Amino acid sequence: MDGLQRMLDAIEYVEQNLDNRLQIEDIAARACMSKFHFQRMFSMLTGYTVSEYIRNRRITVAAQELVHSGAKVINIAIKYGYESPESFAKAFRRIHGISPTAARKNSQSLKAYPKISFQIQLKGDVEMDYRIVEKEAFTVIGKSIQTSTIGGENHRNISDFWIESNQNGFADELAKNCGSLGLLGICLKFDEQQENLTYLIGAEKTIDQIPAGWQKAEIPAASWAVFPVHGAMPDAMPKVWERIFSEWFPATGYEHESGPEIEVYPSDGDPWSKDYYSEVWIPIKK
């Protein structure tokens, strides 16, 4: 509850400073969160990266100023953080589909990205199970992709990656020698500056010789919050992710520790069954 209210405070800070230099560290401080935790919480709750949201809000406000004032395009561009009229025009066209000059003539063609507002609700009617696991560092093997987090592209690409891995036999080959956890979907690296992440389909390393084309990665020792997921894939997993960030984190006082996130898919069940059991593992700190 308090965590979501602090998110609202951070959003208000962004709104008051759209025409100033905004630093993620300062925004996160308004929410009393670490930079990493704020960025993950924000993207999970809104579907936008922080940088993407700021860009969209700036170009929305700039468009209104362009239409309703006589200010020069170059002055508006500089005011909202663009180095040149050309870079402003490119961003403007990406959002609105027309140039700033055309927008002055036809403001009805403009799009608007409204200020985000979180609806804070008490949801104590449905309990949320979890356990804390202390696990030493371990090695995983598998294959990975790098994907953009802008516009939810990562969700589409990761889904396609799983489909391809199941169809081409890679997932079956991986399952033959997977460790006790089963098949793993791991968000390995989050690069908020470049707005991308590395996602690996893998398993705990149990073999000496890694097949050609596979890679290995080290998962650091951590305290993990482990959440059970009950239900058929792919629908059951996103619902638990949403509750983790909208309910569990705000209610418990834990923060997301910088590091990988893991989805655990045991190999002894049918992922498309309504009785399928899987897990979400998130590194945490108090």
Structure summarized in a few sentences:
The chain contains ten helices and nine strands.
Please describe the topology of this protein.
Elements: H1 2-16, H2 24-30, H3 35-46, H4 50-68, H5 73-79, H6 85-96, H7 100-105, E1 131-135, E2 138-148, H8 153-167, H9 170-176, E3 183-191, E4 196-204, E5 215-219, E6 222-230, H10 236-252, E7 255-256, E8 261-265, E9 277-285
Antiparallel strand pairs: 1-6, 2-4, 2-5, 3-4, 3-8, 6-9, 7-9, 8-9
Q: Regions with pLDDT < 50 over 5+ consecutive residues?
A: none
Compute the number of strand runs: 9
CATH class of the largest domain: Alpha Beta
Taken in chain order, the helices and strands follow as HHHHHHHEEHHEEEEHEEE
Describe the largest sheet: 9 strands, antiparallel
Number of domains: 2
Q: Tell me the CATH architecture of the largest domain.
A: Alpha-Beta Barrel
Structural class: alpha+beta
**Helical amount among residues, as a percent range?**
40-55%
CATH level 3 topology of the largest domain:
Multidrug-efflux Transporter 1 Regulator Bmrr, Chain A
Task: Give a structural overview.
The protein has helices at 2-16, 24-30, 35-46, 50-68, 73-79, 85-96, 100-105, 153-167, 170-176, 236-252, and strands at 131-135, 138-148, 183-191, 196-204, 215-219, 222-230, 255-256, 261-265, 277-285. It is of the alpha+beta class and 286 residues long. It has two domains: 2-109, Arc Repressor Mutant, subunit A, CATH 1.10.10.60; 131-285, Multidrug-efflux Transporter 1 Regulator Bmrr, Chain A, CATH 3.20.80. Strands 1, 2, 3, 4, 5, 6, 7, 8 and 9 form a nine-stranded antiparallel beta sheet that branches. A hairpin with a 4-residue loop joins strand 3 and strand 4. Helix 2 packs across helix 3 and helix 5 (73-79) crosses helix 6 (85-96). The radius of gyration is 22 Å and the shape is elongated. The mean pLDDT is 89.
